[in-house]
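--- STAGE predict ---
source: upstream dedup step, 1 unique chain passed
mode: sequence only
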Amino acid sequence: RQLNALQFDPESGFLARKGREAVDGLADAVSQAESVRGSVLQGAPNEVVKRVADPIIARAVEGAVAAMNRHARVESDRWALSSAEGVATAATQAMSLNYLDERLWGQTVGTLKFQAETIGRIKGEDPTAVEQGLLDRAWRARYRAWVQHDAVGAFTSFLGNREKMDPTTALGLEHQLFTAAAPALADQLLTVGGPGVVAPAVPGEKLPRGIRNNNPGLLQRSEERWDGEIPGSDTRYASFETPEAGIRAMGKTLLAYQDRHGLRTVAGIVSRWAPSTENDSAGYVRFVAKAMGVQPDQQLDLHDAGTLSKLARAIVTVENGAQAGARISDAQLSAGLDAALNDRAPPRAPGTVLASRDASIPTYSALVDALPPDQKLHVMQIARARAREAQGAAREVLKGRVQDTEAAYLTTGAAPNPPSEAEILGAYGQMQGPAVIRRLRETQALGVNIQQVKTLADRDIEAVLSAARPQPGDGYAQRAADFKLLEEAAGRVRASRRADPVGYAGAVGAFGVTPLPSLADPAAMGAELGRRAQVVGDIARDYGTAPALFTKPEAAALATALRGAPVELAKNYLGAIYTGLGGDADLMRVAMRQVAPDAPVLAVAGVYQGRGLRTTATTARAATDVSDLILRGNAILHPVKREDGSDHQGGASLIKMPEEKLLLTDWNARTGEAFKGREGANDLFQQTARSIYAALSAEDGDFSGVYDAKRWRSSIDLATGGIERHNGAEIVLPYGMPYNEFRDSLRVRTEALAKSAQPVATTAGELESLPLENVGDGRYLFRRGTGYIVTKDGHPLVVNMNAPSPAKPFVPQSPVQAQIPKAAGFAVTPRGAVEGIPGRRW
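--- STAGE serialize ---
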């Protein structure tokens, strides 16, 4: 029982002890076992019992001691193994926190080797295999920590240590580390190594063809293409993908001069490079020799990189000029010549490298170029994606500047902040970038040409084009290209003028045109229109356009203001326009053709409003402005759709009108030949009469559409001012002038015309007896047979009945005296006299 308790007691038994406690407690446990034997024998009743019991007890004690020794040995090994593994783990963890410390890594490797001996001995395993396992675990811990902070550094270190690892461990680590490093390696491809681009041109600078073609040595084209040569627009000289490719070709050619043709002096090399039949070879030789610091006949070794570089730099300077030649950097020159000396392919443009699916193409990153093909292509694929993403973002940022630059070039011929070629290539890439650069250059040249012609009259532009048209001869291609730009500039100017003549004049500061003031200030608006009225004919003549008074935005704003505006507000606008135009009906029609091309009656309403024409009061109706009737009737016939959806929905008339044939029949009967040959005026006043008829019908509450002849006759008279038969032909009377007043005033005017000797061989009596023909706004021609009375200069003679009489000023009669022939109880009177202005012809 005592031995059992000593060994197996769950709390104090020896066999329950673990690790170091078992090792340290063995001696004490064995001593206790021995003491159990003595205590048992002492308790024996006699010697016989002692002799019998002693062997039995001795075997029991020996068994217990043996079991405790075995337990102690097992626990000792377990403790040693745990200690060794613990030390290895602690060393690995300490190293992973200091993964860049190579000294600590060496110490860790030594510790792991020592512990591997212990672990192998205890486990009965090969210590070398145990050591490799511990090292692999340490490699994994080190690189897992390292990759979190520097993926490329961890991957680079791994590649140098891969052979020290178990193949399985190396394979797993390689996949993890490469996956983490690939994006950073791709970023390196976007920034390190590779060729640059030629320094951007100064705005307006024309680069020599050697720089434009990436061919600074000006090598001529041949049937066999150089590596890196690309198709170009130059028919004589080669074009290359990069400056480095062109420099490599130059270097290969110079080396061939020495190796194949035995040319080893500046004099010999230059005489073949630039023969005297096309060049000043002697001057060329002197410049190159001086630049190299050698004598013209001194022997050279072009396989020496420094000598070849000096020679190439001197040739680049001569062929392109010092300023342009300096755009080829020393790094580009070195890269191209190095490829020539070592017979390597020329450096490729970054865009070409990234676009390639060829793993053999150099990327200018030693680490990436050393990768297996599949990993290298994977990095290039990531780089392509990131380049596209970066280009897209840069393009969005740059797009606005490019557009602003183009607009500035076209407007002023110069731009304050044009993007550089490097910026454009970075944003648009090597494929699209050159096209954007070329377009900007062409736009700049186009803008300069536009500045030359933008203020010229149309006829002068044609003269400039005629003088600049190229003729065959030397330099024809360049002159033709320049003429094409000039022709395009002229076309753009003409198109802009046709689209908006007044807006164009204001934009270029011509004819004193300034922006129209706010519509809320009719007086200021009228003042500007008065200024424009003085130059409208000049603008139309110089620009070769139809007469116009408003810019497109101004016309649109006025149209919006008039569309659906209350009648009184519309009258205010129209009155201000008419007054600003000096009471010129022709100009009023010009204005309304712009503002309301689909509502020509607004021009009539504006003229009548400006002249203050009103109906006279009758027992049936109160006096009102004629323009009021026209505007109200037009709104009834052509309602505007409300933005809020209220009232009518636009389109269909709000009142039913009589049958068209009834209106047309009485119109023709009333007007006769008054509008003969003037179909436009006939249609205009007929529409005006319809608007007045609609307004009068609504006033009377008549929406039936039943034809009212008296109302229609009144509408015709109110629209035209009255129709009278004079000398056998109908005429439209000056608005508000009774026929007897017209006849008397005509007699006075014909006498004055006859005395002025303007008409050819015509007396006053003959003039007074001739039929008249309306030309608009109270002006008439004198008809004789099938022709007209003309002045001495061959122009038709015009009498203006609205102008002051030569005998006495025309004074409007009182409302009673100025009544036109009454119809349906209406009469018309002017509110004030307006001096007539002779009609314009454009």
